[in-house]
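Lecture notes, part 5. Sequence design as translation. It can be helpful to think of inverse folding as translation between two languages: the language of shapes and the language of residues. The source text, in C-alpha cells, appears below.
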C-alpha cells in the first residue's frame, strides 16, 4: 500500500503543494461552497471533460484558503492510472485507512472521489462514511453518468445529498477565460466553437477536431457500449450523429425509424429508445419535452434534443445544413439549464413557444430567433408569446444589433446580454 499511496501524493494538497486548479469557475464554486459544513454528500455530475475534476480541486483549495489543514483533504481521481489498484470499495477503504495512519489528520476529513462510478460497490463506502458519527467526514464525489444516484444510494441517502450538474463553459466563462470583450462578435465565435474547457489549450482546428472525436468515441465506448453490452455499436454512433444534426428540431422515435427505413436500415422502437436513453445518461444530449402551457402538463410524442456542447456539431459534423438560429436555440437551452431551470418546449393554441423555463415558483417563456429582419418576422415571433395570456415573464432573444422596445410585456434581449 505504501507504494500506491506515494503515487497519489502529487495529486493532493499535502506539504503545501497545489495541483493545477485551471480556470476558477466561481458560479459553481460559490454554489457548492454554500453547502459546505454539513453531512450532505456533494455530488457533481456531467459529461466527461466538462471540468468536474478541476471543480473538485478548486473546492478543496477553497477549503484550505478558509483554514482547513491540507492534510485533512483526501483527493483521488479514478481516471488516473495510479489508481488502477482501487477496484472495489474495500480497496478504497484500505487506502483511506492508510492515509489516516500516514498523515494522522486531526478533526473532520474531506474526501474527494472523482469518477467514483468506476469503483465497484462505491455506494457502500459513501453511505458508511456519510453516516459515520464517530469520525467526521464531508464527502464530495463526481461521476459522468446521470444514473450515479439511481438505485441503492438514492434510497440510502434519501434527503442527505445535493447534486450539481456541471456543464461546459458558458458564454460568460468563455469570454472571461479568453480575456475578450462581451460582444455580438465574440458570441458568434462562441456559437461556432463550443465550450469544452480543453479546446482552448489546443493550437489549431485539426487538433481540436481530433480531441472531440476521441472524446466522443471514449464516451460511446466506455460509458455505453461496454457498460450495456451494445450489440450494434454502428447504429449507436449513427444515432448520435442523427441527434447532433437534428438538434433543436422536433423529432420522434417513429420519425427516426422512418429515416432509417429510407436508408434501407432496419431497427426497432425499443432499440432506438434504449440507445437514446443511454446517450442522455452520458450527458451528450438533453431532452426537452413538449409542455401544454394552458393545461400545464406534458405532451407525449414529439420532443426536441439539444447537444451538450456545440463542438460536436462544429468540429465533427459541420457539413450538414444547420443554421446559426438552431445553434442559438441550443445555446439558450444550455444557459437555462446552467441556471437551474427545467426546460420544455411550449405549446399554446397550436403554436410553439421555444422554451418554457421553470424553477420553483418562477416561470419564463422564451422565443429565440437569429434575426428579426422585417415586420412579418417580428409579428410571427412576438405572436407566439402574445398568445400566452398569463403574467409570467416573456422574452424574445435574438442576435439583432439593436434592442427592440418592450411589446405587450414582452422584453427583447440580445443573446450576448442574456442573464438570469
Amino acid at each position: 500500500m505504501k507504494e500506491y499511496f506515494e503515487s497519489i501524493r502529487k495529486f493532493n494538497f499535502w506539504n503545501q503543494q497545489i495541483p493545477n486548479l485551471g480556470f476558477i469557475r466561481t458560479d459553481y464554486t460559490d454554489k457548492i461552497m454554500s453547502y459546505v459544513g454539513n453531512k450532505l454528500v456533494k455530488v457533481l455530475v456531467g459529461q466527461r471533460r466538462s471540468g468536474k475534476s478541476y471543480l473538485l480541486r478548486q473546492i478543496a483549495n477553497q477549503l484550505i484558503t478558509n483554514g482547513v489543514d491540507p492534510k485533512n483533504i483526501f483527493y483521488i481521481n479514478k481516471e488516473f492510472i495510479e489508481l488502477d489498484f482501487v477496484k472495489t470499495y474495500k480497496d478504497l477503504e484500505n487506502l483511506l485507512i492508510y492515509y489516516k495512519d500516514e498523515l494522522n489528520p486531526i478533526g473532520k476529513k474531506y474526501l474527494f472521489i472523482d469518477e467514483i462510478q468506476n469503483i465497484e460497490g462505491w455506494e457502500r463506502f459513501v453511505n458508511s462514511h456519510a453516516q459515520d458519527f464517530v469520525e467526521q467526514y464531508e464527502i464530495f464525489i463526481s461521476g459522468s453518468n446521470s444514473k450515479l444516484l439511481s438505485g441503492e444510494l438514492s434510497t440510502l441517502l434519501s434527503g442527505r445529498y445535493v447534486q450539481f450538474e456541471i456543464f461546459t463553459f458558458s458564454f460568460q466563462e468563455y469570454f472571461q477565460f479568453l480575456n475578450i470583450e462581451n460582444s455580438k462578435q465574440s458570441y458568434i465565435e462562441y456559437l461556432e466553437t463550443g465550450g469544452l474547457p480543453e479546446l482552448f489549450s489546443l493550437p489549431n482546428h485539426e487538433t481540436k477536431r481530433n480531441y472531440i472525436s476521441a472524446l466522443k468515441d471514449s464516451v460511446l465506448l466506455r460509458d455505453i457500449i461496454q457498460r450495456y453490452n451494445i450489440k450494434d455499436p454502428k447504429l449507436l454512433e449513427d444515432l448520435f450523429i442523427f441527434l447532433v444534426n437534428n438538434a433543436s428540431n422536433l423529432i420522434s422515435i417513429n420519425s427516426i425509424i422512418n429515416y432509417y427505413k429510407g436508408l434501407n436500415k432496419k431497427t426497432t422502437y425499443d432499440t432506438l429508445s434504449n440507445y437514446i436513453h443511454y446517450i442522455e445518461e452520458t450527458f451528450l444530449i438533453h431532452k426537452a419535452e413538449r409542455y401544454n402551457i394552458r393545461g400545464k402538463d406534458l405532451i407525449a410524442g414529439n420532443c426536441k434534443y439539444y447537444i451538450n456542447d456545440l463542438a460536436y456539431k462544429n468540429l465533427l459534423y459541420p457539413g450538414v445544413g444547420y443554421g446559426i438560429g438552431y445553434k442559438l436555440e441550443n445555446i439558450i437551452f444550455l444557459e437555462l439549464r446552467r441556471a437551474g431551470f427545467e426546460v420544455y418546449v411550449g405549446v399554446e393554441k397550436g403554436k410553439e413557444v421555444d422554451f418554457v423555463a421553470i424553477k420553483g415558483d418562477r416561470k419564463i417563456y422564451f422565443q429565440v430567433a437569429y434575426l428579426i429582419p422585417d415586420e412579418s418576422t417580428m409579428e410571427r415571433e412576438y405572436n407566439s408569446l402574445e398568445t400566452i395570456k398569463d403574467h409570467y415573464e416573456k422574452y424574445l432573444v435574438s442576435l439583432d444589433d439593436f434592442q427592440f422596445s418592450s411589446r405587450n410585456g414582452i422584453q427583447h434581449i440580445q443573446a450576448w446580454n442574456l442573464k438570469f
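The translated text above is only one of many valid answers, since several sequences can fold into similar shapes. The chain has two domains: 2-165, 171-417.
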